[in-house]
Amino acid sequence: MGETAGPTILGVDVLWVATLLSGVAAFAVMCAIYAATTIRDPMAKRVKALNDRREQLKAGITASTKRRAKLVQRNDTADRMRGILSSMKVLQDEQLKAAQRKLMQAGIRSKDWAVAVIFGRLVLPIVIGGIALFWVYGTDGFAAWSPLKRYGLVAISFIGAYKAPDIFLKNKITKRSHAIRKGLPDALDLLVICAEAGLTVDAAFHRVARELGRAYPELGDEFTLTGIELGFLTERRHAFENLAMRVDLDAVKGVVTTMIQTEKYGTPLASALRVLSAEFRNERMMRAEEKAARLPAIMTVPLILFILPVLFVVILGPAACSIKDALLTG
């Protein structure tokens, strides 16, 4: 006695599809429950880096040479990668500084990762490109492909492996800059209130970072670090310049320029920050209006591909079934 086949639609077993979708839905529910029950403080991971920066600034001013050496943590893996790159004459100071700057803009404070990024640019093309080269030309996995397609696959593997670290850093920088841009007008409003209340600049930065740390953790991280540097660096201008270097935003560079000018010429800080805050809020509103204006054009393709066919099936399906039954009975 054979097994009874389940219902099918277009040759696909409905029960199998329903089981698969039920499994995906159960997994999504489990992920949602895990995300809801494991809420963590967004500033917790950044406290250690800020404390390390504070200790480094203290060591640079008051500590002895032995203590400075103790605070400099050695990473054996980074030292090995640095030695390999130096022996191959591919480690340049300008390249290292550029990688360190990108890492700071991505929120990664450790300088050892700059060596890892440069080492990844050297090793990943050899490893991934070598595997792709062996797979395409050393095996019969792509024998049916034309020579041009096989060459393109190998070339894409080499280029993609070389660009992978830079693409990863660029994505992190873009996400972090967008998060900082969202909270910048609120931060400037709080800075205006702190300045009018009589707080010093470094105390105002600490206060704003404490108030906005949970809503905008990236911005709170940068403001806390700037407040620490304002309290320890000999020239306050360097602290503001470091803030502009760590954040890849023209708006932050404008704020830094305003802060430097107020420190240099003694102009009122509150009025300048109030003007900047109004400009940033208008800019944010213009970006929102621009996205809203693009929405009808963006929704046209999903509307045609997904919504209209379902609507036609719902409206015309019963009528088609009635016509079919009438023709069969007639």
What layout of secondary structure does this protein have?
Elements: E1 8-9, E2 12-13, H1 14-37, H2 44-61, H3 65-71, H4 76-87, H5 93-105, H6 112-138, H7 147-196, H8 201-212, H9 217-232, H10 236-246, H11 250-265, H12 269-329
Antiparallel strand pairs: 1-2
Keywords summarizing the entry:
single chain, extended, two-stranded antiparallel ribbon, 330 residues, 2 strands
Name the strands of the widest sheet in spatial order. 1-2
N/C terminus separation: 37 Å
How many distinct beta strands? 2
Order of helices and strands: EEHHHHHHHHHHHH
* Strand percent estimate: under 5%
Radius of gyration: 29 Å
Number of helical regions: 12
Q: List low-confidence stretches.
A: 63-72
- What's the mean pLDDT score? 80
Structural class of the secondary elements?
mainly alpha
How much helical structure, as a percent, in the residues?
A: over 70%
Shape type: extended
* Major sheet description: 2 strands, antiparallel
